[in-house]
């Protein structure tokens, strides 16, 4: 699954710079995650870096974007190879 940021976000700015896929961006009110770019850090790290640094634990799995580990790895490979889907 991709991750999402909930309205508990306090805009502390710690998640955006640690995202290896540049999936996190400042939205209108809070930071948001682009599900097309989020791999839950699969291929980069053992765990999602945004969740590791979030002080308010506001980054759950996004049930609207369910993906298996294999799908996340394929997305990682596509993103790092420079290919578009």
TrEMBL record:
Domain 4Fe-4S ferredoxin-type: 1-29, 31-64
GO molecular function: 4 iron, 4 sulfur cluster binding; metal ion binding
Protein name: 4Fe-4S dicluster domain-containing protein
Organism phylogeny: Bacteria, Pseudomonadati, Pseudomonadota, Gammaproteobacteria, Nevskiales
Keyword flag rRNA-binding: no
PROSITE patterns in the record: 4FE4S_FER_1, 4FE4S_FER_2
Keyword annotations: 4Fe-4S, Electron transport, Iron, Iron-sulfur, Metal-binding, Repeat, Transport
